[in-house]
Amino acid sequence: MNIRAVIVEDSRLARNELKELLKKYDDITLVGEAENVDEGYELIQAENPDLLFLDINMPEKDGFELLEMLDEVPMTIFTTAFDEYAIKSFEYNALDYLLKPVNENRFAMALEKVRAKMETAKQDNDRTKKLTENSQIFIKDGESCWLVKIGDISLFEIVGNYTRVFFDDKKPLLYKSLNQVEEKLPEDTFFRANRQQIVNTNYIENVVPWFNGKLKLTLKNGEEVEVSRRQSYIFKDRMSL
């Protein structure tokens, strides 16, 4: 994990102090420094850092004003000689608040908070990141293993707490729920036909009206899928011109 950081601090001595502390951490890359709010704003817009070390008391504009200028605020660690701003700093969702001169152990603790937050954000992103048709997934069922391209899968189907995956003439189990699978599938290719099944629309060979306003799909592999009444309306709307 590489964390990109900037320093916005009017004191050259304080900037140098922070840079010396940062030299001990290989996972933190300092990508720029600024000595006032306006320069800091331009630097953050240009570099889009993960982490901001921010002084509060600066000439003309203070650190709080800088945060208010930003549309997207990096993780922020305030560095200041005054402790009366501590409560206000957390109103701005600051990750931490360090008093000058910065204690080395206290600095290390602040960086642990940064790493923890970055890891949580990464895990959240991994969970919600959508796959594409060309993405490959690994499936192991018993002694057999496959590396399958998402676009080659014609159907996903609930089996208890797991999901059966249909591709070629294979039907192995994937040890995830259908809802977990659905979260990652490309929405322009896969369609939730009913509570139990998700179909790859590229594999639909035939569509016929069915009972009670439902539709029945026949896939190229011969599998038949009944689309629920509610999902049939959505399917018609989605697939029409």
TrEMBL record:
Q: Which InterPro entries does this chain map to?
A: CheY-like_superfamily, LytR-like, LytTR_DNA-bd_dom, Sig_transdc_resp-reg_receiver
Highest taxon above the source species: Bacteria
Give one GO molecular function term: DNA binding
Record SUPFAM superfamilies: CheY-like
4-aspartylphosphate: modified positions: 55
List residues of the Response regulatory domain: 4-115
Q: Which UniProt keywords apply?
A: Phosphoprotein
Q: Which residues form the HTH LytTR-type domain?
A: 137-241
Among Pfam families, the record links this protein to: LytTR (PF04397), Response_reg (PF00072)
Report what the protein is called. Answer: Response regulator transcription factor
